[in-house]
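Please, structure for the following, as tokens.
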Amino acid sequence: MVLEVAVLQVIKGEEVHFEKDFTIASQYIQSIPGYLNHSLRKSIEEENKYLLLVDWKKLDDHTIGFRESEAYLEWKKLLHPYYNPFPVVEHYEMVLENK
């Protein structure tokens, strides 16, 4: 499993609209083979800062399967106008998990 992590800086004052459009955009990412789950978390310290966490079966499910899909174009159309600056996306693999 691969964890995609993106810190999203949303244009101030657009948080409510972003959250609404993110709910709509979620259908696009969920439709991709290899997608497992995702969550969006809002910073307590900065009201326009969010953390996007997406679990994928493998890296290519995100970097190729999603990023090269029609679904990504819809995702991009809905969400990318909210970002300033554009987020850096990183991928992580499990080293240790304590449950």
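DSSP finds three helices and four strands in the chain. The longest strand covers residues 2-9.
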